[in-house]
Amino acid sequence: MQRPATVRHRTSLFEDAVAIVESEYAADLSLDDIARRVASSRRQLQRAYSEIGETTFREHLTAVRMERAADLLRGRGLTVREVAHRVGYRQPAQFAKAFRRHHGSAPSDFRAAQRFARPVPQDGAGALRVA
Fold first, then answer.
1. I need a surface site. Which of 54, 67, 87, 92 has the fewest CB within 10 A?
2. Residue 50 C-alpha from the chain's centroid
3. Are 43 and 66 part of one and the same domain?
4. Are residues 67 and 47 in the same domain?
């Protein structure tokens, strides 16, 4: 069992790191860079991600990027290449591979599926679901 002060410290580190990733996900972020910015060591930040976030820095960064990519692909204004660049990937092929791993389909297939999805009434309370 960890001391409460240790848990609070790691929670604070994790929350600070998450805030940076959420706002700067498209930048070239690294664990070392984030650790320096939150005034911590690389190892302490790794522990915070593991114990508080139950993930790793890389998994978290990828998840944030993939969710933002899905949001961008739901729109019609950007190509897959443009979406890749906007979420921090220099190589569209690397982006497509990561997207497929995270969402289970290629970015172009995801976009096509979203285009044909339409809201369908679910119940009398006005809740909608996508068909």
1. 54
2. 16
3. no
4. no
